[in-house]
Amino acid sequence: MTDNLAPETADLLAGIRSWVEIESHTPDIAGVNAMADKISTDYAKCGAEVTRVPGAGYGDHLVVRAPWGAGSNAPGILIISHMDTVHPKGTLETFPFRTEGDLAFGPGIYDMKGGAYCAMRAVSDLANESGAPLSVTHLFVADEEIGSPTSKDLIVDLGKAAKYVLVTEPAREGGKIVVARKGAVRYEVTTHGEASHAGSRHADGRSAIKEMAHVVLKFEELTDYERGTTCNVGLIKGGTGTNVVPAKCWIKVDIRISDMEALDEVEAFVAAIKPENPDVRIEITGGLDRPPYERDPGIDALFAQAKEIAADIGWELEGLKTGGGSDGNFTAQHTPTLDGLGVDGKGGHTNYEQLKISSLQPRRLLMRGLLERLT
């Protein structure tokens, strides 16, 4: 029940609900653009300048500039959020917005409409008051859930122009924010063999699946938990029938790395892969998807500032490193970046996705505090 909520919290929850009830699955261009329309309308109320960047096969991106500091060329603060979710259109029919005690449920509520909305409200608060020391740009991208293929260049360009980057991905493990992330390396591997009848002409065939079995085992050996490297062969497809020696097999590989030195190791490993059967050809494409987001002195200083603000609000802020990637991976190499500044909760990408209602106002105040104190 929400009847007993403080007015500020009830207002935040109502705004988040209005965003959650616009379904915005990444491939659903109309849905994502409807979300962009809603954000543009909400941000316009505080006088923000909203620029729409057409997507290339996906929804549009939004570049929102706070009304203070207009025209300034000095590096400011970049907030990064994403509008898209992993939930297909129609999910609201079986998983509608609802509340239960301190929890609010709904598709995309935790990842990341709750945090994105709280950040928007923090900017709007300051726009309606005295502004902040630095200019603020709030970037909303339309394709983060599939790796930001059409927004990556925009993220990098705006990140390089900023002094600080704040990412509204959800908090982790009870409210911790993210100060480092692993990088992601992705490959597609195809083995090309020779088809033949599996019964009468088996010896004439060259099995692409058999060769791929060797390849899979080689890739899986990359996993080294102490080194921080993990490898997962997540998709595989091959063959045309049980009575045909398979001429083709295909896999997708996801590798997570802690630093750029590990990327060198992975690339050297991939370059050295050779077929066990010289009559089968191995084709490998892909490479670095998101660079590692490594903690450095600039990030340490930014985290210390956030920790101080959180203490003033009333809680002890902790930081962690996570294996998942975000758009913060694209900015952390050149600009101090804090991630996981969104709401507390759990269940991202699931049918029980939820946020803690009690985290809304503290997260809004943390974002506001950063905007007010960073100089």
From TrEMBL:
Domain (Peptidase M20 dimerisation): residue spans on this chain: 179-272
Enzyme active site: D84, E144 (proton acceptor)
Top-level taxon of origin: Bacteria
Pfam families per UniProt: M20_dimer, Peptidase_M20
TM ranges: none
Cofactor(s) recorded in Swiss-Prot or TrEMBL: Zn(2+)
Key words, A-Z: Hydrolase, Metal-binding, Zinc
Any GO molecular function: hydrolase activity
PANTHER family in UniProt: ACETYLORNITHINE DEACETYLASE, BLL0789 PROTEIN
UniProt-recorded name of the protein: M20 family metallopeptidase
High-level lineage: Bacteria, Pseudomonadati, Pseudomonadota, Alphaproteobacteria, Rhodobacterales
